[in-house]
Specification:
This protein has 339 residues and is of the alpha+beta class. The chain is built from 8 helices and 17 strands. The chain has an 8-stranded mixed β-sheet with strand order 1-2-12-3-13-16-14-15, with helices on both faces. Strands 4-5-8-7-6-9 form a 6-stranded antiparallel β-barrel. The protein has a 3-stranded antiparallel β-sheet with strand order 10-11-17. A hairpin with a 7-residue loop joins strand 6 and strand 7. Helix 1 packs antiparallel against helix 2 and helix 6 crosses helix 8. The longest helix is centred in the middle third of the chain and has 16 residues.
Length: 339
């Protein structure tokens, strides 16, 4: 699981420019079946040929990550940027980033988001709004304008780093952790005779779920299981809003989710001794599940979420055991049959 996650986290894939992440996903999925890429850069893998009478199940997670895009280059060579997805501006001042330039040389350029030293502030200043970020790439305006184009993506620097125990930190665990868990489940289901399996690692979740909506329409599954991340507990949280890292995936219960599937996940976890937690959501889930469920005439959809600390920062933290148990729970649920 760690090796797949490392490959996925190393690939750039800010929303709307997921090419690098899509290439990594294709390499990991190609041993499992026929792999195609959609016009929106979602990666689809049909693991088994259709067989009459078997339910078609789609396993999905999103490839894209939050980031920024270049909006202007000032006369002093600074790069102004706008967010792609919900950046946490509190964590951005002084953060190291990489600009994926598409101009002359098509280079990856290191940079730092501007930060006012406390000595020069009045002590009351707040972080700049996310749409007013400025990045220093150490270049003159003339050089920067040759190398960069408007719309070039900017990623937060945060390679996958092992922590103590089985914890890992990275800038894009949302949702490369989900992608790794889905790939892990697909590997466990190679010989599954209970369903036709498709995998969809989709684009643009952070900016509206266009990838999930179009992938679900293209695949037309009978059932779908979306894997995303949700809030892992920290010392300053409200316990009712979060789950414990290392204690298993969160099984979602929400109006848009199929209650029978949520119960089936719970029963399967109990039967096989798989640790799990529950997540009760009274409205929209805020994930691709909302869009998959209403594709075509409707898709019976379940949701598993991996507990994640420090979401939408360069230092997201998850537990590898939660990814592994997510994969195991998906595989066992599907192997035992859906109807």
């Amino acid at each position: 699981m760690f090796n797949d996650l490392e490959i996925l986290c190393a690939a750039p894939g800010v929303s709307g420019d997921e090419g690098g992440a899509a290439e990594a996903a294709e390499r990991l999925l190609s041993p499992l079946g026929e792999v195609t890429r959609t016009p929106l850069s979602s990666v689809l893998c049909r693991m088994k040929p259709a067989r009459a009478g078997l339910p078609h199940v789609m396993l999905t997670a999103h490839l894209d990550s939050i980031g920024m895009m270049v909006t202007r280059i000032t006369d002093k060579g600074f790069v102004k940027a706008a967010p792609c997805g919900g950046l946490d501006r509190r964590s951005l001042s002084g953060a190291r980033v990489t600009v994926h330039a598409t101009g002359e040389g098509r280079e990856t350029l290191p940079g730092v988001i501007l930060a006012t030293p406390p000595h020069l502030s009045d002590g009351k200043s707040i972080p700049p709004k996310a749409d007013r970020l400025v990045v220093d790439i150490g270049m003159s305006a003339e050089t920067a304008r040759r190398k960069l184009n408007y719309g070039d993506r900017i990623t937060l620097d945060g390679p996958l780093t092992p922590l103590l125990g089985d914890r890992v930190a990275a800038a894009s665990l949302d949702d490369r952790a989900g992608c790794a868990a889905v790939i892990g489940a697909a590997k466990l289901l190679r010989e599954c005779a209970a369903a036709e399996i498709s995998v969809a690692l989709v684009s643009q979740e952070e900016v509206g779920s266009a990838g999930a909506a179009t992938a679900a329409y293209a695949l037309a599954p009978d059932f779908a299981f979306a894997v995303d991340v949700s809030f892992g507990s920290t010392p300053d949280d409200r316990p009712e809003d979060c789950a414990e890292i290392g204690k298993g995936p969160m099984i979602g219960f929400a109006p848009i989710l199929d209650r029978a599937l949520s119960r089936r996940l719970t029963e399967t976890a109990q039967k096989h001794g798989i640790p799990y937690q529950t997540e009760i959501i009274g409205s929209r889930t805020g994930t691709d599940a909302d869009f998959i469920a209403v594709s075509r005439g409707g898709v019976r959809t379940g949701l598993l979420s991996i507990p994640l600390r420090f979401m939408h920062t360069a230092g997201e933290i998850a537990a590898l055991c939660d990814l592994e148990q997510t994969a195991r729970l998906l595989a066992k649920t599907i192997e035992e049959g859906l109807s």
